[in-house]
Design a protein that fits this description.
Helix content: over 70%
Number of strands: 2
Largest sheet: 2 strands, antiparallel
Number of helices: 9
Strand content: under 5%
Strand order of the largest sheet: 1-2
Structural class: mainly alpha
C-alpha cells in the first residue's frame, strides 16, 4: 500500500506538461508505428503502473467497457470487409478474414486504448487548475487558459449541481428513483433548475473575472497555483521525444 501511495504521489508531483507530452507521444507513437504490438506492450505497462498506483481496477473496467467492444467491432468490419485484405487467414463461410484488415483493426484499437488509458491516468493524477497553470506559465494566453479550465470543469460542476438538485427534490417528496417512467417524470422538473443555476453561475463568474482585472492589459498575471519543474520532468520529456522519433524512424525505414 505504501508503494502504491508513493507512486501515486510521484505521478501527482510531475509537471502537467510532462504528463501531457507522455500521453501525446505514446498515442502518436502507436499511431505512427507500423505494427500493432507496440500499443499492446504499452498497454500492459500502463496497466502495471495503474495497479501500483491503486487505479488498476478502474483502468481494467475502462478497457472492458470501451476497448473490448470497439476492438470486436473493428475486427469484424476491417477483418472481413477491408479493401486492404489480400492474405486470407480464415474462412467463415459467409466471408473471409483478411490479415491486413485484422492487423489494421488491432493497430487502431491499441492506439485508442493507449490514448484512453494514459489520458485517464493523467486526469486522475492532475488537477485541472495545475494543468492550466502549467500551460499559462509556458506562455499560453490567460484567456485561453481560462477557457480550457472552464471546459474541463463543466462536466464535474454539472454532475454536482444535478446531484444537489436531485437530493433537494427528493427531500421535498419528489420521486427520483424507480422505473423508466418515474425517472422521466423526475427528469423534467430537474431541467429548469439546472439550466437557470448554470446561467446564474456563468453571470457570477463573469462578474468575478471583471472585478479581479482579468481583462486588464499591460500587467503580468499571477497564479495561486504553483507548478514546479524538476529534473525528472526533463528526463521524461526527453524520453517522450526519443520514443516518438524512434517510432517515426521505424515507420520510414520499413
Amino acid at each position: 500500500m505504501n508503494t502504491k501511495n508513493k507512486l501515486y504521489r510521484n505521478a501527482r508531483d510531475l509537471n502537467p506538461i510532462t504528463k501531457l507530452l507522455l500521453v501525446l507521444s505514446f498515442g502518436v507513437g502507436c499511431m505512427v508505428y507500423p505494427f500493432p504490438y507496440l500499443g499492446y506492450i504499452l498497454l500492459l505497462i500502463i496497466l502495471g503502473l495503474a495497479y501500483f498506483m491503486g487505479l488498476g481496477k478502474k483502468v481494467i473496467l475502462l478497457i472492458l467497457g470501451f476497448g473490448v467492444p470497439v476492438t470486436l467491432m473493428l475486427l469484424f468490419i476491417q477483418g472481413l470487409y477491408s479493401p486492404k485484405n489480400i492474405t486470407m487467414i480464415a474462412d467463415l463461410g459467409f466471408a473471409q478474414v483478411g490479415l491486413e484488415g485484422t492487423l489494421y483493426a488491432l493497430k487502431v484499437s491499441s492506439t485508442l486504448l493507449v490514448f484512453l488509458t494514459t489520458f485517464y491516468l493523467f486526469m486522475q493524477t492532475t488537477k485541472n487548475s495545475e494543468t492550466v497553470a502549467a500551460l499559462t506559465q509556458s506562455g499560453l494566453n490567460m484567456k485561453i487558459g481560462y477557457l480550457i479550465l472552464a471546459s474541463l470543469n463543466v462536466v464535474p460542476q454539472m454532475q454536482r449541481k444535478v446531484k444537489n438538485i436531485q437530493e433537494a427534490q427528493e427531500s421535498r417528496g419528489v420521486e427520483v428513483t424507480g422505473n423508466f417512467l418515474q425517472r422521466t417524470k423526475a427528469f423534467l422538473p430537474l431541467i429548469g433548475p439546472v439550466v437557470l443555476s448554470s446561467l446564474t453561475d456563468a453571470q457570477e463568474r463573469g462578474m468575478t473575472l471583471e472585478t479581479r482585472g482579468f481583462s486588464i492589459k499591460g500587467v503580468k498575471p499571477t497564479s495561486f497555483v504553483e507548478v514546479n519543474h524538476r529534473k525528472i520532468d526533463t528526463i521524461l520529456k526527453g524520453f517522450a521525444g526519443v520514443f516518438l522519433l524512434f517510432t517515426i524512424f521505424i515507420r520510414f525505414c520499413r
